[in-house]
Every structure is written in C-alpha cells, then in structure tokens.
Amino acid sequence: MDLVIQDVQVVDGTGGASYRADVGLTGGRIDAIRREDGGPRLSGARTLDAAGLALSPGFIDMHAHSDLALLRDPDHSAKAAQGVTLEVIGQDGLSYAPVDDATLAQVRQSITGWNGDGSDIDFDWRTVGAYLDRLDHGFDGAGIAVNAAYLVPQGTVRMYAVGWDDRPATATELARMEQLVAEGLEQGAVGMSSGLTYTPGMYANDSELTALCRVVARYGGYYCPHHRSYGAGALQAYEEMVTLTRRAGCALHLAHATMNFGVNEGKAPDLLALLDGALDAGADITLDTYPYTPGSTTLAAMLPSWASEGGPDSVLARLRDDATAEKIRHHMEVIGADGCHGVPIEWDTIEISGVSAPGLASYVGRTVAESAAGLGEEPWVTARRLLVEDGLGSTILQHVGHEDNVREIMRHPVHTGGSDGILQGAKPHPRAYGTFPRYLGRYVRELGVLSLEECVAHLTSRPAARLRLPDRGLVREGYRADLVLFDPATVAAGSTFEAPRTPPVGIPHVLIDGRFVIEDGRRTDTLAGRSVRRTG
Questions:
Q1: Distance (Å, whole) CA 453 – CA 441
Q2: For the chain, what are the domain ranges?
C-alpha cells in the first residue's frame, strides 16, 4: 500500500461508535481497514503512527464563498487547515457563471465585498462547464487546494436573462433562464442557489422559482436558497421554500438556516417543528449552519430592494441623491428594509469587517454606531458615506444571532456544516477559518452538544449524501482517501473576532486523494483539488 495510518481512532462518518484500526491507502483510495486485533498488521511503502489521533472523512463545507479564492490562492489554508476537502460554491444566487460579458462585469461589481473585484483573475470562462474546467486546471494544470462543487446561481441567471428590473419575467425570459439552469446542471453543477434578499434574484416570484426548481429536480440536483427573511417573517420564509420545492418535486437544502434578530430569540424549535412536519410528509430537506452567532455579508445588502433596482451604478446614483438617500434611510431605520430582513436596522450591531478602498481602513473593526459617534454624526451619514466611497465593497459582521438557536438547530438530524466564509477584508468573520474545528472543540468536547461521532457525521456523510457522492463522506474500503487526522483532546478554532485568520490547532494531517495537503500541521505544495461534478 502507498500509506498505512496505524493505530488510529476511526470516526467513520456513519455516526456509529468509533473504533481503533490501521487504515491503508492505495492509489488515492482506502484500500483496507484492519480493526484492532483483526489479524496481521497492514504494511505499506510508508507508515504513519497515529496513536492519540482520530481519523475521519474530509469535512465538506456546504456553504462556501471561495469562488475566486480557489483561483487566486494555491495555498488556501483557510479551508485546507480546517480539514475541509470539499467546498460547495456558487452560493446565495450570485457567482461568475453562466455569464456574458455585460453580466460578468455587473456581478463582479455587485459581489466585490465577497470575493474582491477580480482584477487579479483571468475570466476566461463564460459557462458553468468552462468554470469547472478552469478549477480542474487550477494552477498550471496542477489543480486547486481543495475540491469544489458548484451551484448554478439564480440571481446571476436572472441578471443574464432579465436584467435588474423588479418585475416578473416574460415567458421568453423564463424559458431562457430554464435553459441556462439546465445547461449548468448538464455541465456538472450539483444544484441551484438563490439569494432572495439580494438583487436581482429577489425579484423572482414563487412561480418563476418553482419553474426553475422543476429543472433542477429533473437533473437530480437540489435547491439551496438564502430565503427571503431571517428576521421578521423568517418562519413564513422557510415555509415558502418548503412549499415551493415540494410543488416542484425538488430537494431542498436551506442555506445558513438560522433564526436571527430579537424577534426570533428562542424560536429555533418552531423552525424545527416546521421542518419535521415536512420531513414526515415525505419532503427531502437538509440544512447547514455555522457555529457562531453573528452573520456576515455586505453593507450594501442591508439596503431596500427598490434602491438596488437597475444594478450597482443605479444604487450609487440613488445614494448620492439627498432626497432618495433620505427615503432609503427611512426604510432602513424606521420601516425595516427587506435587505435587513424586515427589521429596523440597529447600527450598533453592524460592524465593518472589510473595505475595498484602503483610505477607509479606519472603519474596520468598529460598528457603524461607534464610527458615527467618533465623527459626531448620525449613523446613516457614516453608512451612506462608506457605501459611496467604497463603491458598495464594504463587508460587515451583523451581531444579531442567539446561542440557544444555534445549538438547537445543529442537533437536528438533517443538519450539516457550512462556514459561509467570506475571505475578503481586514477582519473577516472567523467562521471562514474556524468553523469545523470549532464544531469539534467547542460544541463536542467543551459543551457536549453533539457526540464526536454524531458531529463528524454532520460534517461528512450527510453532506456527501445531499451531494449524491457515491464514494465520499465515509471511512470505508473503496472510498476516496479524502481524510482528516485530528486530536479530539486539543482540536479547536484558533480564529477569533480579534484575529480571524489564526489557524486552527489539533489538525496535524489532511489528505485529498491520498495525498497530504496538510502534513505535521503545515501546508504542503500539493494541489489535489478538482471540480466535483453532478453525476447521474
């Protein structure tokens, strides 16, 4: 065998009891598993003494924003060091394929805060298939840091076929969107995402979304919506997605399924009761969460949807007009804009985590309310100036979550892990660098919210089943050797809100395709990642 991992505690991803074994790898797959006292020891060209360590399948990040990071950063330790061996990108309805030239320029501008403006990227693709080919090629044909699966972004598709108008699609436009979604799935996408608090995707009505979900269902994919509200009306927004996908006959995966803002404190059981009712009735539903209370997005995402009609340049024009800007402020601070989930914005919960313009760096790490107080002005004045001067590129942390809700949701049997990690900005959310070790350290070892075996199943086999991957997500003979070795006694997120890019501890080895991408706690130069495409 190429490598034998000796005397390791196997946490195999099934949720069943762990066991001690030797595990042999050959040709990028798990060749043999010899349980303790199960016959002769395995032998190989190389052995690794793993006494004191646990071996699990590689972690699958079900909600990632590494769409450009995978192409600009061959190291990508933000994910590799956590034990992530597969990321699902194309999230929240906004990404870079399928596009034409005009759509590409618009989407680059609209999600600069998520991925940078892309000025360092050669956008030599326009289709989903060509983007996945680019991931396969990676850096000089060697590949990328970790594997990646892709969701067709419904907001980008609408931008391409309809534009930025807040209106129903025509029959011709809907047919074009159905075609684009079908082509993306045929070329390897695993499903479709939406960002229904982001423009222009949020302009789609339920009839339009149902039609697109029927296309997704036809190809055996799943729908992954960031639904219309995580604040006021959150339960109704969840119910809308459940009803819509059941009507379409489409599998549903709820993105960052949280219950946030004061109106939803203690309401996780209400959400789970809704989902249990649908599951009992035969619905195919999963969800993902991150193990933190604050959320993260762009400052521009807080704006009311009507202010974003027409695209980024129209947004900036409205913000520069005093009368229109005052109308925007009133919607945000008094009425509760749909961009802020129907809840009047509280500027002391909005912390600036990153800016695109270097001259605005002094705002980073402070709430809008704190910066405004220091300048002797109202918070909206500060926010408006940031939006304009940063070209809508500012990212935020939004401190609106509830720990009890986080714990309650992560216990649910259909739960999976997703970082929702934005890698841009001077002080990004630590979830981008710490989600998976935080699950294992804080919520397993320290708090006992989940057992080790159950938590590993949430992070491995359950997402692999959602993605319909026949040979990933379990430590089992014949499966791909995408594996993580960690110390259950010490594994922890190193990242904090003060130092978000601090690497985790207690994860000495990570393998993809049987090759070390992390060895003895250090990133190797191996680029074993490729696109993972829809099958069947």
A1: 13
A2: 59-293+401-469, 298-399
